[in-house]
Amino acid sequence: MGIGANAASAATLDDVKAKGFVQCGVNTGLAGFAAPDAAGNWSGFDVDYCKAIAAAIFGDATKVKYTPTSAKERFPALQSGEVDVLARNTTWTINRDTALGFNFRPVNYYDGQGFMVRKGLDVKSALELSGAAVCVQTGTTTELNLADYFKANNLQYNPVVFEKLEEVNAAYDAGRCDVYTTDQSGLYSLRLTLSNPDDHIILPEIISKEPLGPAVRQGDDQWFDIVTWVHYALVQAEEFGITQANVEEMKKSANPDVQRFLGVEADSKIGTDLGLTNEWAVNVVKAVGNYGEIFDRNIGAGSPLKIERGLNALWTKGGLQYAIPVR
Amino acid sequence: MSTHQATFVRASMIEAAPAPSRESGIVHWLRTNLFATPKDTALTIISLLVLAWIVPPAIQWLFIDAAWTGGGRGVCATLAQGGSQPDGWSGACWAFVSAKFDQFLFGRYPLEERWRPALVGVLFVLFLVPMLIPKVPYKGLNAVLLLAVLPIIATILLPGGWLGLTFVETPLWGGLMVTLVLSFVGIAVSLPLGILLALGRRSNMPVIKMLCTVFIEIVRGVPLITVLFMASVMLPLFLPQGVTFDKFLRALIGVSLFASAYMAEVVRGGLQAIPKGQYEGADSLGLSYWQKMGLIVLPQALKLVIPGIVNTFIGLFKDTSLVSIIGMFDLLGIVRLNFTDTNWASAVTPLTGLIFAGFVFWLFCFGMSRYSGFMERLLDKSQR
Predict the structure, then answer these.
(1) B46 — pLDDT class (breaks 50, 70, 90)
(2) Contact B342 A31 (CB under 8 A)
(3) Which tens digit of pLDDT belongs to each residue from A129-172?
């Protein structure tokens, strides 16, 4: 699959500036991450990352075009240069990082595969699930993780597999299986569509690690740095308490770290070294808010999904989101 | 001498009595069609029971319990799900369809530019309807309008980018618009191309015959999904960096060529059904190849295979929903995409959306099927 990688041009930033927009690969529809709003515009967690990258480069979050990619299409689309960055809930794995010729660095969402069961079954742990009928979507890593987990723990199970997500949801809701398994973020969106959400519980076991993050082609370090630092800037802004609303005010902050971050320090080179303007972090936060705001608006407390921050909380609050110092 | 005294003499003709009630009217119809034999009676009762079991709950779910208006998932979710409906409620969520209706028609086409596809749609109906009614005159002019002028107008208006129109890239197209553009182009290209391929395959010239056969067999031997997937995923890897070639155009070409191969085989079936005498008769009249085909063979052959042609059209119309696997959103794709909008996530949204998409597909396919039946009866006069 390495054919396309060498065709990829080195200076993505120059290409992007020349054409005037970022071509961003997103999901073909995943609740909270990339979904159409009432007017049909893309919105969601991953979509906000596309906007943030555009804001960092152009100071304008609208200079982005979206390519919806299916699970099968996404890697060829990035390899062939059809998209500049893939912000499509893609799990960072060694195979994708090396053999497929991509680069991953920041993890913008720590996901993991979990189980949902009916309360009536009185199950407290996934280890009690021997003999259960498990609803799962076919052709995904979810199905493989499920098989691995049950085999490793010497448990029996009957997989009830479906091709489409709606089918799996409907089958579980209708009681055709006892257990539903998918990534935790997916379990939250499933809860919205169940007849009686309170009859179901999510088991504590997480059986796989799914670090999701934006991916770029190997061989273009400047572009890789920009995508990486956009994420760290979003997290850093949350650490500093800089929000979409107060970013202009914070420029006057006496804190030298904040001043440096926002590029107001005298002879700042905070953006020029990246090939951007010194205002880039200001533009990013102005366009989409900080990491916490993006999270809340799309998938967290401010959205119907109401996903807990959990592992995605700041490191200061017991999570794993840790910004590399901006200095 | 006594004469036989008749006690009653009929002076006038008796009025024709109505047929016995069991031999006429609805009772007769019921007796002959539904209750003729004990087996029929049993089947009728079973069918009625099945209908009584399915229809009232369906009406209840689709219309009576349905949520018709509202601005979010609340109207289609029960209290336990965080909505306003009583617990245990289940009904169609038509509010979802009505809120997303414009998207279902036009996809993500920019709001202020939607008059363009709407205008093309109106012109399409204006040109198509008189074409379909045999009594309306000026068929030649009409055909030019439908098959030459309309595609030119559509090519100018839909993507835009000239004459002061903003450019709307094809990834923003979607919904019924994409379904109709793909099927119209597929149908308009595949019929003539299919006829040419069929003639080529039956030609006496070996090179043409071989080329047509190879094309038909290769295209028919590969699933449409593979064709689309190759066009969308593999092609860009072989093109030099920076050379892109619109994904919608790729799908359009793929679908058209695919339908042509199937059409060719349908038409070939018709050509083979024409008796040899017709070909020989045309030859003995001294007609050229194209005169023979155009005047004698094809009019008969095509008439014979109308059901097959329409079958291919209907198949093509439904196959257009396969483009959703290459990240384009036809009607079904855009409906399914909107299930992921968390503002409308509820237990009944997917079902309602799919019923709506299914109904629209059915309307078009049923329309085509009825019209082809009408054409068959119209053209069938010689056979009666």
Answers:
(1) very high
(2) yes
(3) 888 899 988 767 788 899 999 999 998 999 998 877 778 888 88
Domain spans in chain B, listed from the N-terminal domain onward: 110-168, 173-383
Name the residue among A120, A115, A173, A167 with its Cα closest to residue A142.
A115
Round to whole Å and give the CA distance between B235 and B252. Answer: 15
Residue B236 touches partner A, C-beta closer than 8 Å: yes
Question: Which residues of chain A make contact with B225, given a CB cutoff of 8 A?
Answer: none
Contact flag A166-B329 (C-beta cutoff 8 Å): no
Distance CA B349, CA B62 (A): 12
Residue A108 pLDDT: 92
d(CA A168, CA A264): 52
Q: Regarding the domain delimited by B173-383, which CATH topology (the fold level of the hierarchy) does it fall under? A: MetI-like fold (1.10.3720)
- Chain length of chain B: 384
Q: Closest-CA residue in chain A for B240? A: A7
**Inter-chain CB proximity B341 and A9 less than 8 Å:** no
Render pLDDT for B132-146 as a digit per residue (tens, 0 to 9).
Answer: 888 888 888 888 888
Tokens in use for A97?
């990082």
Q: Which residue of A has its CA nearest to B170?
A: A67
Amino acid sitting at position A266: A
pLDDT in tens, B200-225: 999 889 999 999 999 999 988 889 88
Q: Check CB contact under 8 Å for B343 and A8.
A: no
- Residue A46 CA to residue A214 CA, distance in Å, equals 8
Give which of A63, A103, A69, A65 is closest to A89, Cα–Cα: A69
DSSP B78: B
Q: Find the distance separating the first CA and the last CA of chain B, reported in whole Å.
A: 68
Q: Which residues does chain A have within 8 Å of residue B326's beta carbon, measured at their own beta carbons?
A: 70, 73
**Residue carrying the six token digits 């990491």:** A291
ipTM of the complex: 0.81
> What are the structural domains, with CATH classification, of chain A?
3-110+211-317 (3.40.190.10), 113-208 (3.40.190.10)
A80 vs B237: CB contact, 8 Å cut-off?
yes
pLDDT higher for A7 or B170?
B170
SS3 percent helix, strand, coil of chain B, rounded to 5, is 70, 0, 25
Measured between CB atoms, which of A29, A35, A73 is closest to B232? A73
Q: What percent of chain A has pLDDT over 90?
A: 45
Q: Is A195 within 8 Å of B90 when comparing Cβ atoms? A: yes
Measured in angstroms, the CA of A19 and the nearest CA of chain B are apart by: 11
Rounded CA separation A147/A155 (Å): 10
Q: Which residue of B has its CA nearest to A300?
A: B342
pLDDT at B160: 80
**Mean pLDDT taken over chain A:** 88
Contact A76 B236 (CB under 8 A): yes
The radius of gyration computed from the CA coordinates of chain B, to the nearest angstrom, equals 29
